[in-house]
Design goal:
- This protein is an all-alpha fold.
- It has helices at 11-47, 49-72, 74-81, 85-105, 114-132, 139-156.
- The protein is globular.
- The longest helix is centred in the N-terminal third of the chain and has 37 residues, at 11-47.
Length: 162
Amino acid sequence: MAGPQPAPASRPVMQAVHETARFIAVYGTLAILILIALYLVLAAFGRGSAAGVRSLAGVLLPVVVASFLYVFRRTVLQRLAAVPTFTGLGAGLVLGVLTMVALQYLGRGVSVPLAELVVSACLSVLVFSAAADPADRGLAWYYGVLCGLLVYLVIWGVPGSL
């Protein structure tokens, strides 16, 4: 026996809630990652132009690699988006936490911009796997990464490099 069905009048409301949650998950996650990457690059330029250029290159490299995969090996990215929902959520959660751990421990004082590479790789995986998949199957990754970022903040607070 099926559960109670929503009244027809509440369907538009539920659709609006769904679209709002999707908007927050997708654009909120992307905005957070972009702001972190921008902060890391600007902070590096504050330490000198050589550090800034290296940091910028660290942010751009994963984007270039992911765009290459998108153009020439789209199936790799489609497989990422096509994982089962809870697998994508869990993998995204781990990816989000690892991104924050990278900010904590790989932030400053390292000649190779590892934090920038990790943040940008996370961003690139999200954007290009979602773009490669015509359905919304990759949406679980966004929710997972957002949850991972928030779980880290709740448990350990703001990383020291921010």
